[in-house]
Protein 1
Amino acid sequence: MTIESAQQTTKTSKRKTALITGGSRGIGAAIAQQFANSGYEVAFTYRSNQEAAQETARRITAETNLPTSAIHLDLEQEQTIAPAIQQAVGILGGKIDVLVNNAGYADMSAPAFLSISPETLKRTITTNVIGPFLVTQAAAPHISPKGSVVNIGSCLGNRVPSRGLTSYATSKAAITGFTRGLARDLGELGIRVNEIAPGSIDTEMNPADGPASDYQRSTTVFGEYGVPDDVARAAVFIASEEASYITGATLAVDGGTNA
Ligand code: NDP
């Protein structure tokens, strides 16, 4: 089936819909919340903690009065991708207005280059690059015309100011290329594709009291970490009609780290 024919045949929900990967915690949970706050029906994916994910979905539904769903997806298990997207499309009434590729992995132990194991490299590339690529291929036939894809990259995809981040930086630089190419490929359908490149955001992946946190704070203009809502508000903006002439772009949300 071509993307165009699938767009024509899907039954459509009137409410705006958003699918967010890795929405059980951290930046993804904030993105799910902010899209729901903006009137979107949200489905988000989780990998490991079903109970926590369902609690997040219940909380968002209670706060917004909008149905919110948690769906299992493990980007390292390729066979889970197509069923998860099909499930999301069914839940969201046959269409996805916004897809946010947020789920990601980083080895924060900052290993020396020669110590990066093939397993870590494969996990990083599979989760951060191949996963979003395959998710987007599965979702694209269901993304609305005038819909939007938002890829969560990293400021480390552009500049790498410290050691031990090579596998992660490699994966996030690929997200920039993915965003540019996809903007061309999906643009003729009216679908916009953009990247958000966060800097130091206080989450389990990169806690504001972690080992390298003082250094990270020192690289920002404000001398402080950002919070997940900083990224989430930018995601809602760049997916919205307000950003209708923005595609193939990277929006830094890094407190000036890469300035
Ligand atoms: P967290 O580690 O707090 O959350 C990661 C999320 O990704 C979780 O929901 C996790 O699910 C999910 N996930 C991880 N591996 C997989 C997988 N194999 N399959 C499916 N889901 C998976 O990270 P953040 O919230 O900090 O990061 C979110 C995004 O932002 C990532 O892409 C990250 O690279 C990016 N980023 C973060 C920055 C930061 O400073 N925090 C800076 C720049 C970019 P589960 O809980 O089920 O394991």
Protein 2
Amino acid sequence: MIERYSAKIAGTGRYLPDKVMTNQDLEKIVDTSDEWIKTRTGMSERRVASEEQASSDMALEAALQAIDHAGLRPKDIDLIIVGTISPDHAFPSTACIVQNKLGIKHVPAFDISAGCPGWIYASNIAKQYVENGIAKNVLTIGVELLTKILNYEDRGTCVLFGDGAGATVISRAESSDISRIIDSDITADGTYWDLLIQPAGGSRMPASHETVDAKKHTVYMDGNRIFKLAVRSMYDSCDKVLKRNNMDISSIDWLLTHQANLRIIDALGRKLKIDPNKVIINIEKYANTSSATIPIALDEAIRNGKIRRGDIVLMSSFGAGLTSGSILIRY
Ligand code: ACO
């Protein structure tokens, strides 16, 4: 019989590229305004990777920090899962490239394509591996380099996204540890698969001169429809996790949701009836870094002392698929 263990977040790390693109910078590229972007989304600026950088380069920096923060070395990692929709290549997985950069061999490594909840999906899987005893220290990464696949003629999408990486090490918890991943929920509704999509480059629409000319290799989004589904899907996921752990919103010290739009974060907070002071927000600095928003904000909040040991943190996300999911932890 397989023994059951508990899992915890043992270390966190983040990487943001140095280059800052402000709303004023975007005003020079596309027909938009600082005022529109701020009032409609809450975003002021975002980070942009350099020409030379790829997702695995950013993932590596975040991973090294998380491994160090956990008091481990790369050789202690026994599984690598990368959540991304902007991998270095269609294949092989970015996880294998990160594995090579970390100098680790003979451990499984794979990517998860789950849109913005990519890190939540990866960490949900990591939790199972740790709990069933198959892995002791799993590296989960959310990384996105979306600025290279944005259409800077489409003001409805190009202002919304930024680049970055967040990483966590999910380890076996000792019985003396107060830290735990209490629960996690993931789900998807493929009815909405075409609301957020990079149409070309796969088997449905292989790359051709026409697809490049028509900018079909960039992000397409039905923002209005996603907006409505976002609040509902994150609320349902949070509610499910709270209910099955006999907890209510007053037990939560911090709510950390996907940073896609300040109005979505506020609406979810109101629906959950959480004190707005308990909601972690950094969207103004980094915009939407897709699968990286939650692990970046988690690392930032831990390192600046906002999230303290023993705090209960509820994290939730939604994204392309349409996917959604939550993770409830005691840090
Ligand atoms: N600057 C100025 N005007 C703009 C811009 C812009 N950047 N973008 C759109 N507009 C205009 C529109 O053309 C429209 O003009 P019109 O009324 O003359 O037609 C007007 O602003 C209103 O447009 P809406 O789309 O209705 O604006 P809305 O308030 O819905 O905001 C937004 C749009 C920000 C995209 C919002 O719908 C949203 O955040 N949706 C959710 C998107 C999301 O979460 N995506 C991430 C999913 S996660 C993942 O997997 C990556």
